[in-house]
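ok so i was messing around last nite and threw this chain in just to see what happens. nothing serious, just curious
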Amino acid sequence: MKKLLYSSLISLCMFATSANADFYVGAGYGGALNSGSVREHEVSSSYKNSPVYSLSGGIIMPIPLFDLRAEVEYLNIRPETKKLGTKQLDALMVNATGVIPFIPLIDPYVGFGVGYGRYDHTNTSAWQYLMGVEYNFETLPFVVGAEYRYFKLTDDCGKHSNTSKYHNNAVMLKVKFVF
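result:
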């Protein structure tokens, strides 16, 4: 998985230098409607909703009819269980999204991401679907938007008698600085 992330970053940088691309950095905050279950030492519990944070960086490559965007994103989620306390989830994702400029200044997009997650000291792979809208300011290099995502860890996480099946539906507000 790490080789996939590294090779994706190198490919994006090489492609961006040959294309008429814009770079951006961004941050997001929202809420995750956590689903799944966790089991530790014969105690089972479900998840409560929790905040989700993101940091991202990427490129926007204009092609005919739509813009292609590629980004690397760090996600931080602290899902709390009803009986077993708060867990830690960090993920590094590579996302690809297609932006369709239907209306001037407002850009809807859809995308998909794959990556590497670390849930409560256990490594696993993850994937997500993304969809949202963004508003581009005409005179400022800022973009604001709202996004929905479905995020899922692909494996059961845990050691010994501990297991977790985790996925969430998240809604986020995002801001990007384009340069």
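not much to say yet. The two ends are 29 Å apart (CA to CA).
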